[in-house]
Every structure is written in structure tokens, then in C-alpha cells.
From TrEMBL:
Classification via PROSITE patterns: ALDOKETO_REDUCTASE_1, ALDOKETO_REDUCTASE_2
Keyword Oxidoreductase: yes
Name of the protein this chain belongs to: 2,5-diketo-D-gluconate reductase A
Taxonomic source organism: Streptomyces rishiriensis
Top-rank lineage group of the source organism: Bacteria
Basic and acidic residues bias (residue ranges): 16-43, 85-99
Family named by the database record: Belongs to the aldo/keto reductase family.
Length: 387
């Protein structure tokens, strides 16, 4: 009965310079940082790496070569290219340098235990293990610092290899993995955590999630509370928990989950779930922000119209819409140009009318499956992982 990579729906930082959060800014980041704090009310986190490192690295990234260890974080100033326009899309002279335009500034959310989590990261579900090292390497080179994997994805080792060869410092990263159902329970969860950590080649996780709300969830949570207390998991949380299960878990345990990762996209918006999570101090994280392209999301006329108005893509509008709702997003792509596109969502803002137009697309239903469907509960509960 051993099966791998089945379980998701489709198969079925420097000295501070006075920033409000006390973190350092680098080179030209300050201009953008101020702007985003004002617009989002969210904190500014990390910046993209390869594009603003040494001159050598800047030249290398232009050729698609990743920066290596020691190149990250050393600013280089380049002249603005001729004809560069203001980020709002008009022809005013740009107020920032080329260095700044090449950087990505990802804001963070503060979890209920004070841990900062990037609001945008990179998901690796359905990336075959043999393609994962390249994909994660490309994502790190594009500026992503949060990575979302799972024991059930079968690619934790490849994620670990990509992290090691990227040269990005561990403290710059926010790494999430997840506990599968067949490892539920206090002892098993502990062993599964150790296995994931070994496969990833890490000595701690930033976020460890219960992947599905099935099996001995309470035993798993006790193990995870201990992992958290021991500092091995900076934050712990859940995934695919409907509000009733989430509240039950909260009300009968010590640690409140920091995150609930659930299907969230324009056709299934989860506003009621988000309201309850907000009341309870749980951060919502979207999986499937593009609904994996279902419902013709990428060619949807409403989303397309908003995208055209901003000179952005539908993918960027969807991510921006989620981020303005303070939903953490972890889009997946195996294509470097889409990775760059998907992280480039911090230089525009949807208007209230545009937010409302996207809100009107909600069907209130999953495009994948219902986590309360008995047949699916049983099916997923029978999926075990290879060692
Ligand atoms: N907790 C859970 O149960 C659960 C379930 C599902 C997913 N997740 C997590 O959430 C992450 C994201 O969800 P997901 O991977 O299911 O789906 P998704 O991010 O909604 O969609 C990924 C699909 O969109 C395409 N795509 C990406 N960027 C694009 C762009 N700019 N333009 C056009 N197409 C684009 C990708 O194709 P290419 O790769 O060819 O670019 C891929 O087919 C996962 O990777 C995983 O980490 C968790």
C-alpha cells in the first residue's frame, strides 16, 4: 500500500537603519520598503538575492547563473536603463536606481508567537523530485525565501540539496514541511519530524504543519508542541482544517496553531474561515492560489481586465489580491520566468473596486474536494509514504 506524492487534491539580514521592525535594509531597498509599509500595513522582510549582489553576481544572473555563497547581500549600484518608467506606469523619471528596480521586497506577517513569515513563498507540490533541486534553486535565485514542501511530496531531499547549493544563509530562509496522516500520533509524529529534518538536511524547521485533519491529530499536536518548546520548530500549525476542527484543537491544547494552510483562491475565498482564524490568532495561508489553473483562471475576463489596467498578469493580480487580504501565498511554478513574475507583486495595489470585483467571483466551494467527504477521508487515510 506504499504510495508517495499522491495526497494533494489533484491526484484525486546587517545593522538596522531605523526601520519599524528593526531589521536591516540593504542598498536601495529603503525607498520601496517605506512605500510598502505605508500601503500594506505589513512589515518588510527580506529582499531578492541574486539581482543586487556583487557586480559579478549581477552580471552572472543576467546570464541565468545563480549567485554563489558570499555574493549575497553586497549591494551594487547600476545606472537606470534608458527609458525606464515609473513603477506606477507613467513616464515620470524613476525615483530609484536600477539596483532597486531589480530587487524584490517581500513583506512579512507576524505569527501568533512573534515569528515573522514571508507573505509570499514558493510551493513544490507536484514537482517531481528530479526536477525539484533545479526549481528551488531557480526560486531562491529569483528572491524567494520561503519554501513549502511536505513529507508526502517526496521531494524534501531535493529541497535540501537546493538550499545547500544556493549559498543562501539558513537564517534568511523560512522552511515549511508537513506531517502526513500515516505518521499521526505522538511517537510517530516525532519520528516523522526527525526524518523530514534529516531529508532536508536542516537542524530546525520554521514551520511544521499537520497536513490533513485526520488520524491521531491530538497525539501529533502534543508532539509538535514539544518540538516547538525545544526550538526545533519555530512555529507549528495545521492544514486543511475547517473552522470547527481548528477551534476544537485550539480549545483543548496549549499552543494555538500559528498557521492554517487551506485551499484559497478567487473561486473559493474562505472569508468566513479567515475571520475565525483572525479571531483566534491563526494566520491563513493559501494553497492553490491559482486554483492550479482550474475554471480557466488565467484567462478569466474579470481578472484579465484588472491585470490589463495595471499592466500586470492575471497571476500577479491573483497573488496581489490575496496579499491585500493578508493571506500568505505559496505559488508553484517550474518555470523561472513565472517564478520572477509571481514574486513581482509588490509594486502595485488593487483598488477597492477591483478587490470587490474579485470578491464577487467566490463560489464558496472547493474546486478540488471536500475535506469532510467520507470517501475522501478514507482514501487519504489509506495513503502511506515510502520510507
Ligand atoms: N496543504 C495542502 O493540502 C496543499 C495542497 C495543494 C498545494 N499545497 C501547496 O501550495 C502550493 C501551491 O499550490 P499548487 O501547486 O497546488 O497550485 P497553484 O500554485 O495554484 O498553481 C500551480 C500551477 O499554475 C501554473 N503557474 C504558476 N505560475 C503561473 C503563471 N505566472 N502563469 C501561468 N501559469 C502559472 C503552474 O505551471 P508551471 O509549473 O508549468 O509554471 C502550475 O500548473 C503547492 O506547491 C504546495 O506547496 C498544499
Amino acid at each position: 500500500m506504499a504510495t508517495t506524492a499522491v495526497p494533494e487534491p489533484t491526484a484525486v539580514p546587517e545593522p538596522t537603519d531605523g526601520r519599524p521592525d528593526g531589521r536591516a535594509t540593504r542598498g536601495g531597498e529603503r525607498w520601496r520598503a517605506t512605500r510598502y509599509i505605508a500601503r500594506d500595513g505589513l512589515r518588510v522582510a527580506r529582499t531578492g538575492p541574486g539581482h543586487h549582489d556583487t557586480a559579478a553576481a549581477a552580471a552572472a544572473t543576467a546570464d541565468g547563473v545563480r549567485p554563489t555563497a558570499g555574493q549575497v547581500g553586497k549591494p551594487v549600484s547600476l545606472p537606470p536603463p534608458s527609458g525606464e518608467t515609473h513603477p506606477e506606469g507613467d513616464s515620470r523619471p524613476t525615483p530609484h536606481t536600477r539596483e532597486e528596480t531589480l530587487m524584490q521586497t517581500v513583506t512579512t506577517v507576524t505569527l501568533n508567537n512573534g515569528v515573522e513569515m514571508p507573505i509570499l513563498g514558493f510551493g513544490v507540490y507536484q514537482i517531481p523530485p528530479e526536477q525539484t533541486e533545479q526549481a528551488v534553486g531557480d526560486a531562491l535565485a529569483a528572491g524567494y525565501r520561503a519554501l513549502d514542501t511536505a513529507a508526502a511530496y517526496g521531494n524534501e531531499e531535493a529541497v535540501g540539496r537546493a538550499i545547500r547549493s544556493s549559498g543562501v544563509a539558513r537564517e534568511e530562509l523560512f522552511v515549511t514541511t508537513k506531517l502526513w496522516i500515516s505518521d499521526a500520533g505522538e511517537d510517530r509524529a516525532r519520528r516523522a519530524f526527525d526524518t523530514s529534518l534529516r531529508k532536508l538536511g536542516l537542524d530546525h524547521l520554521d514551520l511544521y504543519l499537520i497536513h490533513q485533519p485526520y488520524g491521531d491529530v491530538y497525539g501529533s499536536w502534543r508532539a509538535m508542541e514539544r518540538l516547538h518548546a525545544e526550538g526545533l520548530a519555530r512555529a507549528i500549525g495545521v492544514s486543511n482544517f475547517h473552522a470547527d476542527r481548528l477551534v476544537d484543537l485550539i480549545d483543548h491544547n496549549e499552543v494555538v496553531p500559528a498557521v492554517n494552510q487551506i485551499e484559497t483562491h478567487p473561486f473559493h475565498q474562505r472569508t468566513d474561515d479567515q475571520a475565525i482564524m483572525r479571531e483566534r490568532g491563526v494566520q491563513i495561508e493559501s494553497w492553490g492560489p491559482f486554483a492550479e489553473g482550474r475554471n480557466n483562471l488565467f484567462t478569466h475576463p474579470v481578472l484579465g481586465g484588472i491585470a490589463a489596467a495595471h499592466g500586470k498578469s492575471v497571476a500577479q493580480v491573483v497573488l496581489r489580491w490575496l496579499i491585500q487580504r493578508e493571506v500568505v501565498v505559496i505559488p508553484k511554478s517550474v518555470r523561472a520566468e513565472r517564478m520572477a513574475e509571481n514574486i513581482d507583486v509588490f509594486d502595485f495595489r488593487l483598488t477597492d473596486d477591483q478587490m470587490a470585483a474579485v470578491a464577487a467571483l467566490d463560489t464558496g466551494e472547493s474546486l478540488f474536494f471536500d475535506h469532510r467527504d467520507p470517501a475522501m477521508v478514507s482514501r487519504l487515510g489509506n495513503v502511506t509514504l515510502d520510507a
